[in-house]
Give the backbone structure.
Amino acid sequence: MIHLETGKYGFFIWTAYGISAAMWVLLIVSTLLHARRWRRRAEALTRK
Amino acid sequence: MGPRLSWHAFVLLFANPERFMAWSRWAAPLFGALAVAAGVLGLYLGWSAPPDYQQGATVRILFIHIASAWMSEFVYACLAVASLLALVWRQMLADAAAQAAAPLGAGFTVLALVTGSLWGRPMWGTYWVWDARLTSVLALLLIYLAYIALRASMDDETKGGRAAAILALVGAVNLPIIHYSVTWWNTLHQGASVFRSGGSALAPVFYWPAILVALSYMSAFGSLWLVRIRGEIWRRRADAAALRAARG
């Protein structure tokens, strides 16, 4: 059973998890966009 | 006696961009799937465990803090090894690997500092102290940022890569300082609590979630690193194609 109650420490715990989740989203999205952008550009240039 | 693969041949085997693009295509999603599986299981076990008798519910922060802190150092070690290979063998793939690792390492270091700070406030009574562990990890973040800035500031990519590689190797001296800071100096930060002689200080209900979340972070790094290196190879191919087209 999951214990989601955090009592008086809720602010610290949920802020830590929230910032971690935001950082993961940033790293994943920036990585995928960077790779997609340059793959398309390389493919377009080598096709010419 | 069977055929022997020299170290140089071994490096070349993994330094071939075509071979890398072939195996990383399936390895990246595989690492990603492993990261999700280990992360879900680790967090489920971690949040199923009862609150710690001393730390209360703040022990939940440690699962993500320990993983971030380990990764901040591990990624830097990867960056330093890739930089060494790029300097010694002038390998394009190693240079791309070093460049791709830096933003990921900086992200992990920010997470280690922020989650540690959010754990420290209720447990130590302060968000920050200038003790050896916290200060050396802050220095690690500054080295990551300096590496990224140095590469970005030079028009000649080869020279920029070489200068950044030297910076990365010099900065590697900070890794043992971080690791042994809690032994060499009297710090507010506690000593090693997971891997230490005499066994882990963490109870098994907290130990396994911490290990699983760390495995998840490492697998996710593996996946993102491979994708970033692939992107970097495409970028360099695009630049080379654009240069050829410009020359007619």
